[in-house]
């Protein structure tokens, strides 16, 4: 079964990439590191940490290829909604195992495109202490490598979740080595595959661990600290 017809048109991501680059580079001292690690062709998943409101726009702009990001559906109800639709971003209903959104993203991967996702599910410290399984499901179903992405500088400790970085401040998007998850087979069983749930959990933890390590190392290498708090307006 093909899911490509359910995916946003590729030209929308190309438009978003161009618009994003123009805005981000004009407003901030933004730089990309390790962009050459992103495969130049074929399906790719960009999995990024999430601390600030502009993370999606910044990663989209600094990525070497146009991408369709999974974005909270509630964001489409705001003033930026029309722009998100126009640029081919994919609305995601958080916490509901949104199969429609994942199917649309899978269609992007099936045609050899790039999908962006924030495995943490929302803005926080960005240290990947916890992460969802959606990225692993997409990687397994779409046969796509996962590139860990560290997005740094978009929120400082104490700032609100919807705050913007100071104009011309330094932002860094650091792309790590791709992680390839595979459909493993259990060596203890003759030809038997590992149960799907176990395979998914293993892949999700492998991706989470790789992303957490990459974010930590990138933060130290670039000298940009992660926020030391959850945004005040997200406290329980």
UniProtKB/TrEMBL annotation:
SMART domains: PlsC. The keyword GTP-binding does not apply. One of its GO terms (cellular component) is plasma membrane. The keyword RNA-binding does not apply. GO terms for molecular function: 1-acylglycerol-3-phosphate O-acyltransferase activity. Residues 44-154 form the Phospholipid/glycerol acyltransferase domain. One of its GO terms (biological process) is phosphatidic acid biosynthetic process. Keywords: Acyltransferase, Transferase. PANTHER family: 1-ACYL-SN-GLYCEROL-3-PHOSPHATE ACYLTRANSFERASE. This is 1-acyl-sn-glycerol-3-phosphate acyltransferase. It comes from Knoellia locipacati. The lineage of its organism: Bacteria, Bacillati, Actinomycetota, Actinomycetes, Micrococcales.
């Amino acid at each position: 079964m093909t899911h490509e017809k359910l995916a946003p048109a590729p030209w929308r991501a190309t438009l978003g990439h161009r618009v994003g680059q123009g805005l981000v580079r004009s407003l901030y001292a933004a730089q990309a590191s390790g962009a050459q690690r992103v495969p130049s062709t074929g399906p790719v998943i960009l999995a990024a940490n999430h601390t600030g409101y502009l993370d999606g726009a910044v990663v989209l702009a600094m990525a070497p290829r146009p991408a369709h990001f999974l974005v909270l559906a509630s964001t489409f109800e705001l003033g930026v909604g029309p722009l998100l639709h126009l640029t081919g971003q994919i609305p995601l209903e958080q916490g509901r195992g949104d199969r429609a959104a994942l199917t649309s993203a899978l269609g992007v991967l099936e045609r050899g495109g790039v999908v962006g996702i924030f495995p943490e599910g929302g803005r926080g410290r960005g240290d990947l202490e916890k992460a969802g399984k959606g990225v692993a499901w997409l990687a397994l179903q779409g046969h796509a490598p996962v590139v860990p992405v560290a997005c740094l500088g978009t929120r400082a400790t104490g700032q609100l979740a919807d705050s913007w970085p100071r104009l011309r401040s330094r932002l860094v998007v650091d792309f790590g080595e791709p992680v390839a998850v595979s459909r493993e087979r259990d060596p203890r069983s003759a030809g038997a595959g590992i149960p799907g749930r176990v395979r998914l959990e293993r892949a999700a933890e492998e991706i989470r661990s790789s992303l957490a390590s990459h974010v930590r190392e990138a933060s130290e290498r670039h000298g940009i600290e992660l926020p030391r708090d959850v945004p005040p307006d997200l406290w329980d």
